[in-house]
Amino acid sequence: MRTRSATLATLLAAGIALAPATAMAAPTPTPSPGATTVTKAGTSFLSATPVAAGQPVRVGASTGEYLYWSFPAAAGETHEVNATVSLAKNRSGRSTWTVEVFDGLRRRQACTAGAQTPTADASASTVAIGCTLRRVRSWAEPWSADPLPGTYYVRLAVVNVPETDLGLPIDVDLLISTTGDADTSPDDGRLEAPLVPPANAGTVLDAVPTAAPEDEDDDGWRLNLTGWLPEAGSRWIWTTAGGVLAAVAGVVGFALTRRRSTR
User: Fold this and answer.
1) Burial degree of 242 (CB within 10 A; 0-12, 13-18, 19+)
2) What residues pair up with 79 in beta bridges, in sequence order?
3) pLDDT confidence of residue 218
4) Residue range 216-241: average pLDDT?
5) Residue 84, CB half-sphere, CA atoms under 13 Å: how many?
6) Is the alpha carbon torsion for 15, 18, 19, 22 positive or negative?
7) Is there a domain that residue 262 lies in?
8) What is the DSSP letter of 245?
9) Residue that wins the pLDDT comparison between 235 and 190
């Protein structure tokens, strides 16, 4: 009986000890089946390369470059950004990397989990970077910085590196994963329009020729001579009037103050 009790107590203690570790373990994000790999990255917010959730990214770059991507976010979604940077072998020192996420108003969003700014030793071959964002809300107060639906921007860069290591080649693998249901939201409201909706290319309108007015000749010059005259409030009228008055005042002043010659 004692043996069974001791065995049960041991199993219970082991279960309690392993429970936090099991709860902390999170599944590794995987790309969506059939997703096309993105092989480009922008160098600014305006040239950020658009990617979708679950779409893998693999880009070759140089140490010191700023890399930008953009992705859409809807209310009720929680996004996780994971990146792995393969470093050059002939590095001379440690390097610190960071991944930052901005919303459509260029406001930096806080990370709730993940190694956002890890440091790689000189002997390390890779460095893993991660950032889990807050759940996107359907609406928020104007003064708050809560994440709202719209376009978000990811920026990956090195923030501390020896000067001699700048320009060395790197390979970046990035994946943005999404959890949550975009159709349901606990907020009592909704945003009328995304902060920065995705830009869609428009169509070029054909120019429609218009008939020339009757008061224009073949060369396009207007026959109405009044168009050459300046308007009443034009500065040319006031400048000319001021010049004339100044000249008259000078002549009158000279006539009043000159000395009469005496013989």
Assistant:
1) exposed
2) 178
3) 46
4) 59
5) 9
6) negative
7) no
8) H
9) 235
